[in-house]
Design goal:
Strand order of the largest sheet: 3-2-1-4-5-6
Number of helices: 18
Strand content: 5-15%
Helix content: 40-55%
Structural class: alpha/beta
Distance between the termini: 6 Å
Length: about 375
């Protein structure tokens, strides 16, 4: 009998579309803005229309988000990770166009952390050459690899060796460049008003309104609330395990009047994961598909990161826990925990994801999160 349900948020309860918009705008800004590589500063602004955002997103991720879908299919779940991988790939492509004349500089740049200041320096050098983007290279380059999850970061190092002739590990793990990508994304998503609260740092580029006030639910708001009421009245404990930061989880839940159904101790966000990563001697990613998020969601935020990491897997009585998610990363995390998994077909790939979930043996495949009710009624 299922006694606990842990929900992902994006693609399950709330739409991911604005996150993907923010991801595209982040990649675009880091390539063209004077604050980063400055390749086309005249095209940069902080207030794009919905039509302009659509064009930018189709430019960098493909007309049908093919680039995002490939990364999702390889187990990447964090928008920050996907931005980093996309930017890192384009960054290597740009450097490959100047390698004949700037070999020593490229080697030097790739031996030290790539900070925003380093990007500015690289941008000044790129300005002396006729370089161009090629977003269409992403899929062919990564289809040649078999890497999944954060191992894809290491594949950037291999691409640097292949395309630049430079031996480096600068792209591995949660790097300085990854942190730059994260901060720019947060500027776009939460806006000027909330960015310092979200990241602890002020905006580099002010003027962004953010998407935080325009959340879209993936089923009727009242019907989702009725589902939460049904579950708690049925004696099922519910929690959240999301790749969203705390601000971007708690504020929408409060606005939607969903927060009252949850014990906040069992709402685990990217902030909890980041805190745990910072406590590790060797900083490695604990985001999904690592099960850390859901383990802490189950045990509670009062549990130390060490205790969560030392939890024997599969967990005891795992069949009594149901993880509800929209991605392969969620499924893999649930599998490591020995939990049941319900795939919801409201994520990026929609109903096209059914075959992947069938291939990986999801216990349930649902058209909408509201169908969770039927699972409990049948148990």
């Amino acid at each position: 009998m299922i006694g606990t349900i842990l929900f992902d948020v994006d693609g399950v309860l709330l739409s991911e579309e604005h996150y993907f918009d923010a991801s595209a705008l982040t990649l675009w800004e880091m390539l063209i803005s004077n604050n980063y590589l400055a390749l086309s500063p005249e095209k940069y602004k902080t207030d794009y229309s919905p039509r302009e955002i659509k064009v930018i997103r189709e430019t960098v991720f493909g007309e049908n988000d093919e680039v995002l879908k490939l990364m999702k299919s390889r187990g990447l779940n964090s928008n920050w990770d996907m931005i980093y991988l996309s930017f890192g790939h384009q960054f290597i492509h740009l450097l490959s166009q100047i390698k004949e004349n700037e070999k020593d500089r490229i080697n030097s740049w790739l031996q030290e952390p790539i900070t925003r200041e380093v990007l500015l320096e690289i941008g000044r050098v790129l300005h002396n050459y006729d370089v161009h983007f090629d977003f269409g290279r992403f899929i062919p380059d990564f289809e040649m690899s078999s890497e999944t999850k954060q191992e894809l970061f290491n594949y950037l190092n291999l691409l640097a060796k292949e395309k630049l002739g430079v031996q480096t590990d600068v792209f591995s793990g949660i790097s300085a460049l990854w942190s730059v990508c994260e901060h720019v994304c947060q500027e776009w998503y939460v806006g000027d008003e909330n960015v310092e609260k979200s990241t602890g740092r002020p905006s580099v580029q002010v003027g962004k309104k953010g998407f935080l006030a325009n959340e879209t639910t993936l089923a009727d708001q009242a019907e989702i609330e009725a589902l939460f009421t049904f579950l708690t009245e049925s004696g099922v404990k519910i929690g959240i395990g999301t790749g969203r930061p705390e601000l971007e989880t708690i504020q929408p839940f409060r606005h939607l009047d969903w927060l009252k159904h949850f014990n906040i101790n069992h709402i685990v966000t990217a902030d909890d994961v980041l805190k745990a990563e910072n406590e590790l001697v060797d900083r490695v990613s604990l985001s999904k598909p690592e099960p850390f998020t859901y383990i802490m969601g189950l045990k509670g935020r009062g549990t130390s990161a060490k205790d969560c990491l030392n939890t024997p897997l599969p967990i005891e009585n795992g069949e009594e826990v149901l993880v509800v998610g929209d991605s392969l990363a969620d499924l893999l995390a649930a599998r490591k925990m020995g939990c049941q998994f319900a795939a919801v077909l409201t994520g990026l790939s929609g109903k096209d994801a059914r075959s992947d979930f069938e291939k990986h043996g999801a216990d349930y495949i649902l058209d909408t999160v509201l169908d969770v009710r039927g699972i409990i009624e049948r148990n």
